[in-house]
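Most newcomers find our protein records easier to grasp once they have seen one. Sequence and backbone structure share a record, each on its own labelled line. To make this concrete, we reproduce a full record directly below:
***
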Amino acid sequence: HVQLVESGGGSVQAGGSLRLSCAVSGDLLRPACMAWMRQIPGNEREAVASISTDGSTTYADSVKGRFTISKDNAKNTLDLQMNSLKPEDTGMYYCAARISSCGGQRSSRYWYNYWGQGTQVTVS
């Protein structure tokens, strides 16, 4: 059983920064594909960034150069550093995982089968 618990959300002014963290517990075996997703009310949940077991990353075009996804295998955490935040970054951010290699579906919400409860990010 895998549990994902996000933290670090909050309210920030445009141009500011936030760091989200996801604590992973349980038997998250490797290989594992992990991601940060976000959802704006009325919109589909979309991939922000993903990271594979070997450290390869992907980013949504809208966050490239501003967001950085990273993981600490020793601490079992997945982080998202968000810089130069914009109002359109506002949304609920979710940590997601799948016990498999990241494949061509890694940007799809349907690829992941473990989810955290979400943490709200508001940029004004």
User: Anything to note?
Assistant: The first strand starts at residue 2 and ends at 7.
